[in-house]
């Protein structure tokens, strides 16, 4: 496991290009099973008690198979998508009375990602600030979310029309390259905030705290070493 310098403002996006893409992909892929595990665990506990299994659909619907940024987010985290979408309804309703339909839809998308950005900043805002983690506000993470509406507009204006005449296999390939490229680029800034807040520290901590890290490098490592010396 890589030992990160969490004092850097951009521990991921300051890396060489190939390493930036590699670690962004690794951290992003880690989030899917981590978040799904929570949902699955809750469903396992509540369904035997009488909860309707239909109330616990999968959080993710194959987001990495998306052929557009907009489609990616319709497949990503069902709970967040519904919640943020409903919170954006009133702003969209107000904008639709004063703007064109296209402009009102952009307002809705922008509000959704603004609320998402704020919620993520608040979510990790409780993490302690110390000499190892000196950053108080994770602006790179906010940039990741606020770039999404512009990516959706760009693909609707250029990517989708330009790739539409292509044969279906080539069209799907080009669009997936676009989605992966855009998401890895913007996702790197999300990972900047994730790493510098200690979520990937060797000694554990953060939202993705796991047993293996605590045993190998964290506070439980002393017990492992004691057992090895006794043997």
From TrEMBL:
Keyword annotations for this protein, in alphabetical order, are:
Membrane, Transferase, Transmembrane, Transmembrane helix
| GO CC annotation | membrane
Q: What molecular function does GO assign, one term?
A: O-acyltransferase activity
Query: What is one GO biological process annotated to this record?
Result: lipid metabolic process
Residue intervals passing through the bilayer: 21-39, 106-126, 177-195
What's this protein's family per the entry?
A: Belongs to the wax synthase family.
**InterPro entries recorded:** Wax_synthase, Wax_synthase_dom
> What's this protein's name?
Wax synthase domain-containing protein
Domain Wax synthase: residue ranges: 56-123
Asked whether the keyword Oxidoreductase is assigned, the reply is: no
Involved pathway(s): Secondary metabolite biosynthesis
Note the superkingdom of the native organism.
Answer: Eukaryota
Membrane topology annotation: Multi-pass membrane protein
């Amino acid at each position: 496991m890589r030992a990160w310098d969490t004092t850097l403002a951009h521990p991921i996006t300051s890396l060489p290009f190939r390493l930036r893409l590699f670690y962004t992909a690794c951290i992003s892929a880690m989030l899917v099973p981590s978040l799904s595990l929570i949902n699955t665990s809750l469903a396992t506990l509540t369904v035997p008690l009488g909860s309707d299994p239909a109330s616990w659909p999968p959080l993710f619907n194959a987001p990495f198979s998306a052929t557009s940024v907009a489609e990616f987010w319709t497949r990503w985290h069902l709970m967040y998508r519904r919640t943020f979408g409903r919170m954006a309804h009133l702003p969209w309703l107000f904008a639709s009375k004063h703007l064109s339909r296209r402009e009102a839809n952009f307002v809705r998308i922008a509000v959704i990602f603004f609320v998402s950005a704020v919620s993520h900043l608040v979510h990790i805002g409780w993490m302690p600030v110390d000499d190892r983690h000196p950053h108080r506000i994770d602006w790179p993470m906010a940039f990741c979310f606020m770039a999404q509406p512009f990516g959706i507009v760009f693909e609707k204006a250029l990517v989708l029309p330009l790739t539409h005449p292509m044969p279906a296999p080539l069209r799907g390939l080009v669009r997936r390259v676009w989605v992966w490229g855009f998401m890895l680029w913007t996702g790197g800034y999300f990972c900047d905030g994730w790493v510098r807040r200690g979520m990937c520290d060797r000694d554990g901590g953060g939202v993705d705290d796991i047993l293996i890290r605590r045993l190998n490098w964290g506070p439980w490592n002393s017990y492992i070493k004691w057992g090895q010396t006794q043997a």
